[in-house]
Each structure stands twice: as C-alpha cells, then as structure tokens.
Structure to design on (223 residues):
C-alpha cells in the first residue's frame, strides 16, 4: 500500500522565521511533487523532484529529495504572510497519492 | 497557457439525484485523473483514463462511473447522491510518459453540495 506522511500537520510560524516540512513516502516511485492549496481552491504545482539529491528553489521555498531515505523536505525561508496555505506532497505511480497536508499559518 | 477546464464550478443537488461533472484537459494531454477532496482531507484518487480507456481505479463508489471521449474530455457521472458525496472534485491531466506518470495539472475543481 502506498503511504505518504507529512509532518507537521499544522505549522504556525512567525514572519521572518525559517521552518521545514517533511514528507516520507513508502512507494518505489521516486517521483515527488509539492503542491500548494489555498482554502477551497485548486492545487498549484510548486516543485517536481525526479532524482536523488534533486534540489529546487522558488522564492522563499526550497524542496529537496533523498530517494534512499524516501524523504522530501520543503524548507521555508523568512516566512511571509502570503505563504499561508496548505502544502501537500505527493508521489505518483500514475495516480497521485498525497500526504495529509501541512496547514501553514504565518503571523506577524 | 491553456489550463484544465472543469464544469460546472458549483453544483447543488439533493439526495438520490444524479450529477455529471465535466473535465476538459490541457490540449495534447492524453491522460485524465479524477480526485475527490472531502472537507479537511487530502485529495483521494477516484479513476483515470489514458487514450479513452480506463487506466486505473481507486476508491470510486459503484454509484459513480466515468468515461473519456474521443476529444479527450472526460465526464464523471454520479448517481443516487448521498450527503457524504459533498466534496471538491478535481480533474487533472497529463501526458503519458511511463508507468510512474508525468506531472499532473489540476483544474479549478467542482464543488458539489448534496442536501
């Protein structure tokens, strides 16, 4: 059974601080996706990680993939309020299997 | 750039009624996926189609059926609706690459409310 687990599930951050969201997966598909979802909205693709050691950065977000540990991280640098959203990681074998999502709230 | 189109965006139905959700994939995408997202939950895979054939099936109730047409658009038909079917329904499309799949692009979703 495919399993994807994220932690933490809830993250309250102060603006300007750094934090990391972790995503563990148990599939043989080392293809990892990160999505952002605002309440009631669709999923916005953030990163696609396809190989061991892959690191991608976009603005204040950086994602990495360790296929040996079956672990991906999403690092947030100097958080701002606009980053408040739910972040979902997922792995695919055709269909996407998602983690539970991390609800991020950034406050002043 | 063209995105995935879903219609309707909002739908209100009563229990035991039927509903049809439509999905128009990004041009030249040959694979369509349907996901259901209940309140506070992550999206759950329902069913997928590749080149008009069902390619995978997830936790889709027997009351639901879907198909992909020759123009690659897909429809999700839901019958005998129950209160628990109230959710956001997403369609995603991609190009076929290998058995692991390629990046999926999500539509805006259809919010179904069953009363």
């Amino acid at each position: 059974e495919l399993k994807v687990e994220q932690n933490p599930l809830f993250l309250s951050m102060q603006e300007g601080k750094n934090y990391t969201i972790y995503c563990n997966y148990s599939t043989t598909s080392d293809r990892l996706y990160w999505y952002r979802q605002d309440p009631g909205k669709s999923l916005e693709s953030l990163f696609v990680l396809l190989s061991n050691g892959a690191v991608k950065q976009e603005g204040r977000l950086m994602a990495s993939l360790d296929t040996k540990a079956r672990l991906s991280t999403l690092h947030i640098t100097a958080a701002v309020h606009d980053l408040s959203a739910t972040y979902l990681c997922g792995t695919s074998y055709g269909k996407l299997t998602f983690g539970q999502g991390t609800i991020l709230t950034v406050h002043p | 750039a063209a995105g995935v189109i879903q219609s309707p965006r909002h739908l209100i139905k009563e229990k035991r009624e039927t509903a049809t959700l439509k999905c128009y994939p990004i041009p030249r995408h040959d694979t369509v996926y349907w996901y259901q997202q209940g309140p506070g939950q992550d999206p759950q895979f329902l069913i997928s189609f590749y080149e008009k054939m069902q390619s995978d099936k997830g936790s889709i109730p027997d009351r639901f059926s879907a198909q992909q047409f020759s123009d690659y658009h897909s429809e999700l038909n839901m019958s005998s609706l129950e209160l628990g079917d109230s959710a956001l329904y997403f369609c995603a499309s991609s190009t076929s690459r290998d058995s692991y799949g390629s990046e999926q692009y999500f539509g805006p979703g259809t919010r179904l409310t069953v009363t």
